[in-house]
């Protein structure tokens, strides 16, 4: 069987702020790309940016989610999280926060207090992962995954951190509701890079820095190469020092209906989510 071919290259239309602490570029979103990138809904790439020292709390205050998971990967800086399930913590460079909103949580995200006090470089990515219909109303869950817990392997000229899924016998620590691969790659030497991906699975390669070539196409910083599902594995030519994020998974093939922080299967479920939030049934931050 041949390798997966390039479907198309996605480019962010521009940057915006989430709250006052996260300057991001949305590389894809569920309003436009939910089916072709299923089970992935959204990817915000934050930074790279430089923040001066401050005593202010920079970030985004309490807001709700239902029906999916948020995955926050910090490359530089610190992010503090607190939610209505009672979970919370601080993640720094190399750490990952994997929050399952499920039936609903209210949470807040700010720069870490120590990071804010000293200032410095800030870079992160937040990925939204859809939940299967049967798990949309599961109990909220919080996984704080520290860099030391994430296995790393040498693969085809790249150093790969396996956050979720499996590569070369290394299994990522993240617990998922459907088959997923989330790998953080740093290309150590230029050349051909081959990555496994089962026939029929979604596969996308996010370029955070550097560039990759796929046939005649060049994919650069803050762009996403979305591959066709037909075929097994993918092959790219990557520049030395490139920083990439590989996203792979089994498509859910279910309806996606979303409005802001709620992603469900029907419009009626969205209206129920709004009513439940307004009635306080997703909890509150004390």
Short description:
The protein is mostly beta strands and about 290 residues long. About 10% of the residues lie in helices and about 50% in strands.
Give structural attributes.
7-stranded antiparallel β-sheet, 286 residues, mainly beta, 26 strands
Structure commentary:
The protein is mainly beta. Helix content is 8%, strand content 52%. Strands 1-22-19-24-17-14-13 form a 7-stranded antiparallel sheet, with no helix packed on it. It has a 7-stranded antiparallel sheet with strand order 2-3-4-11-6-9-12. Strands 5-10-7-8 form a 4-stranded antiparallel sheet. Strand 2 and strand 3 form a beta hairpin. It starts with 5 loop residues before the first strand and ends in an 8-residue tail after the last helix. 42% of the residues are buried.
What is the number of E strands?
Answer: 26
Alpha-carbon distance between the termini?
55 Å
Report the order of strands and helices: EEEHEEEEEEEHEEEEEEEEEEEEEEEEH
Tally of helical segments: 3
- The stretches of 5 or more residues where confidence is low (pLDDT under 50) are none
Mean pLDDT, to the nearest integer, reads 97
Cα-atom Rg, whole angstroms?
18 Å
Percent of residues in beta strands: over 45%
Topology overview:
Layout: E1 6-11, E2 15-18, E3 22-28, H1 30-33, E4 40-51, E5 59-65, E6 68-76, E7 79-83, E8 88-91, E9 96-100, E10 105-111, H2 113-118, E11 120-130, E12 141-145, E13 152-155, E14 158-164, E15 166-167, E16 170-171, E17 180-187, E18 191-195, E19 202-209, E20 211-214, E21 217-220, E22 223-227, E23 234-238, E24 243-249, E25 257-259, E26 262-264, H3 267-278
Antiparallel strand pairs: 1-22, 2-3, 3-4, 4-11, 5-10, 6-9, 6-11, 7-8, 7-10, 9-12, 13-14, 14-17, 15-16, 17-24, 18-23, 19-22, 19-24, 20-21, 20-23, 25-26
């Amino acid at each position: 069987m041949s390798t997966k071919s390039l479907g198309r290259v996605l480019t962010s239309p521009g940057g915006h702020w989430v709250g006052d602490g996260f300057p991001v570029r949305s590389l894809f979103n569920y309003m436009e790309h939910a089916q072709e990138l299923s089970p992935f809904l959204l990817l915000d790439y934050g930074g790279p940016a430089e923040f001066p020292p401050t005593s202010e709390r920079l970030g985004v205050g309490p807001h709700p989610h239902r029906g999916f998971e948020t995955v926050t990967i910090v490359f530089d800086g610190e992010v503090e999280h607190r939610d209505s399930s009672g979970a919370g913590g601080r993640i720094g460079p190399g750490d990952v926060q994997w929050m399952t909103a499920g039936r609903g949580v209210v949470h807040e995200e700010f720069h870490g207090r120590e990071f804010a006090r000293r200032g410095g470089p800030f870079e992160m990515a937040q990925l939204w992962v859809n939940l299967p219909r049967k798990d949309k109303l599961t109990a909220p869950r919080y996984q704080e995954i520290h860099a030391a817990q994430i296995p790393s392997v040498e693969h085809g000229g790249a150093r790969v951190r396996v956050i979720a899924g499996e590569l070369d016998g290394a299994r990522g620590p993240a617990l998922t509701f459907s088959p997923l691969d989330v790998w953080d790659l740093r290309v150590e030497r230029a050349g051909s890079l081959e990555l496994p991906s089962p026939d029929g699975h979604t596969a996308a390669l996010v370029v955070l820095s550097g560039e990759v070539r796929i046939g005649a196409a060049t994919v650069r910083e803050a762009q996403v190469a979305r591959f066709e599902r037909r075929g097994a594995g993918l092959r790219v030519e990557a520049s030395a020092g490139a920083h990439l994020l590989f996203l792979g998974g089994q498509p859910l093939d279910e309806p996606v209906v979303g409005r802001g922080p709620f992603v469900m299967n029907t419009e009626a479920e969205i209206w129920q989510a709004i009513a439940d939030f307004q009635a306080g049934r997703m909890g509150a931050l004390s």
